Amino acid sequence: EADIYQTPRYLVIGTGKKITLECSQTMGHDKMYWYQQDPGMELHLIHYSYGVNSTEKGDLSSESTVSRIRTEHFPLTLESARPSHTSQYLCASSDPGGGGGQFFGPGTRLTVL
Amino acid sequence: GDSVTQMEGPVTLSEEAFLTINCTYTATGYPSLFWYVQYPGEGLQLLLKATKADDKGSNKGFEATYRKETTSFHLEKGSVQVSDSAVYFCARYSGNTPLVFGKGTRLSVIA
Q1: DSSP structure class, residue A70
Q2: Which terminus of chain A has fewer Cβ atoms in its 10 Å neighbourhood, N or C?
């Protein structure tokens, strides 16, 4: 059973607020990822990290930022939330020796009013 | 660039029907191939995988065979259940890059 956690599971906030979505994994994986998921289901990679102090932008441009100060922790921050940020955010991690397979957290459903 | 194309849904089947969800991938390199499943309100779970040509991945009655000649990795199940209702994602992995996912196929199984 994969041990990757996301908090909060659900968040409803007003426009302009700063928010941080938390993601932690206890598997010691070097690689971690953030995805934004459409209501239509499609996954969009927005950030990834291959280790501490390493972060890269994904395929979908995002106003969010990430940090990777510890191996197990990969938080995503929105400085000023807007209704267009309303979405499901999924965090994942993978083991370099695992052949590419990723383990996913349960997701955070964000609603910005 | 690398891509994965899977059949659009939604797919609606009666219980005990045969399921096929088509998936094709771009053939650059020698990718590993995956099927993930997402149940309502949850994250994705790895369903099965295959790492080289002619490998067959299987789990929970689902199967998929890595076909290099047709660049395909179709998901099949002989008899679906209501509990199989979910969204299914095909994905490929090659080199030191993130997984590339298809757009997902929603399956609804009715009793």
Answers
A1: B
A2: N
| 3-class secondary-structure state, position A87 | strand
DSSP string over B2-71: --EEE--S-EEEETT--EEE-EEE--SS--EEEEEEE-TTS-EEEEEEE-STT-EEEETTEEEE-BTTTT
Q: What is the Cα–Cα distance from B96 to B32, expressed in whole angstroms? A: 12
Q: Which of B11, B30, B44, B107 to mutate to test the interface with A (most CBs of A within 10 A)?
A: B44
A41–chain B Cβ distance below 8 A for any pair: yes
| Residue among B44, B45, B51 whose CB faces A99 most closely | B51
**d(CA B5, nearest CA chain A) in Å:** 12
B83 touches A at CB < 8 Å: no
**Distance from the B93 Cα atom to the nearest Cα atom in chain A, whole angstroms:** 6
Q: Do residues B35 and B47 touch, judged by C-beta distance below 8 A?
A: yes
Non-local (6+) Cβ contacts of A61 within 8 A are: none
What pLDDT shows up at residue A2? 58
